[in-house]
Amino acid sequence: MTTFEFLLQGLLSAMEPMNLLYALIGVTLGTAVGVLPGIGPALTVALLLPVTYRLDPTGSLIMFAGIYYGGMYGGSTTSILLNTPGESASIVTALEGNKMAKAGRGGPALATSAIGSFVAGLVATLLLAFLAPYVVQIAIQFGPREYFALMVLAFVTVSSAFGDSALRGLTALFVGLAFSIVGIDQLTGQTRLSFGVPDLLDGIEVTTMAVAMFAIGETLFVAAQGMRGPETVEAVKGSVWMSAQDWARSWKPWLRGTVIGFPIGAMPAGGAEIGTFLSYATEKRLTKHPEEFGNGAIEGVAGPEAANNASAAGTLVPLLTLGLPTTATAAIMLAGFQQYGLQPGPLLFATNPQLVWGLIASLLIANAMLLVLNLPLIGLWVKLLTIPKPWLYAGILVFATLGTIGANPSVFELGMLLTFGLLGYVMRVFGYPIAPVVVGLILGPLAEQQLRRALAISQGDVTYLFTSPIAAVLLVVAALAFIVPLILRIRGRGAMLSQMAANED
């Protein structure tokens, strides 16, 4: 079957009444939670992860994708109306979007953000559908050493791309790898690091750790900051619809943002924030209204938001085809696959084509649903921003706890939830990224298994790991993935500081 036929088959699956309902629930929940201040897509997906536990895999992952896209949409509302980016990728949206809101143009800012996200998500999802099979054809040729090299690339990606220090990222990764060896050894059947506790024989539950470290740890950290001054929600004045001039100034940035964001999202160690900064810089260079930049230029919202959502779809290319997470949200989505015993990668396309293509097709439907939901219901999302902070944080903690009880009704599991939540809080306090811990827990057993298989084939010859052309290329890319983010981080920090200084002037 051709890609087009697979996509049509996926659309038929995604348009089944129950799957449409799951997609609608997912985008609504994702937007509602993502719009709350201080809650980004990663925390949104982690918090709602247990909600999908009892569903069938296809319905669950469709809801999951809706939550992911909804969280991305919701973050732009917070950035524009509250000047509080939920994640680093929304910083640029806040720069221009909040200035537009203060000038009484919050409606057009939200509209160009929503429509730009729709355009970018639509184009990027189609690119995902047509590029994925080619990546799968390459990945099918992978043996144990190629898979081990791919795992190394994943480890380097998450440890170097997240946080302000590659050393802290590596430290967090090794914490996750240490947790991953708890339980019964897959090859020998020996117990490791279980300390005589029967509940640890099956290893540490990925869902529990993801919810604890992202939802509980992040919430405790944000709540511990206290009130850092009053937060003013800018009212949406006038019409939310864009004028003809707004359309004329937005459509090109939408397309340019899509072209910039998608490949960066698909690259190991890409990161959505890089695409948004590049899009912003491009629009500032090409604009016919340079005097408006820093004072509320609509191009400065349209381009970066398109880049942000195109990057989100781009992230799914390495995740679905190689099982390689390149963002914190992708790491949580990987945990979502694993709770059903599914491992994203080339074999998933062969063994579960209906699930994979239904998921890809559901992204198209989720995009359309989000456009319909976001513009008419802007007033409702604005009201959510007024929820008192103590109620918000208490609600998140209760929801995360109830979700864990529903998925794993055990006193021991609740204890693990609390322990990992406190660990996540401590790591955030000292500036250690969370994503490498979760990725280490998920991919650690796979990397160990493939390494031991490769060494068994070569009878202990370590050079065997480097003699395959594909493995050698992946290891070289891993080395670049370690070095390039360091350079980009230094340059990006300098560009951001200069931009903020210019805005203050």
From TrEMBL:
InterPro entries the record matches: DUF112_TM (IPR002823)
Top-level division of the source organism's lineage: Bacteria
Keyword tags: Membrane, Transmembrane, Transmembrane helix
Residues in DUF112 domain copies: 20-438
Entry keyword Transmembrane: yes
Claim: Methyltransferase is one of the keywords in the record: no
Transmembrane segments: 20-49, 61-82, 109-135, 147-163, 169-187, 316-335, 355-379, 391-411, 417-443, 464-488
Protein name listed in UniProt: DUF112 domain-containing protein
Organism name: Pseudorhizobium banfieldiae
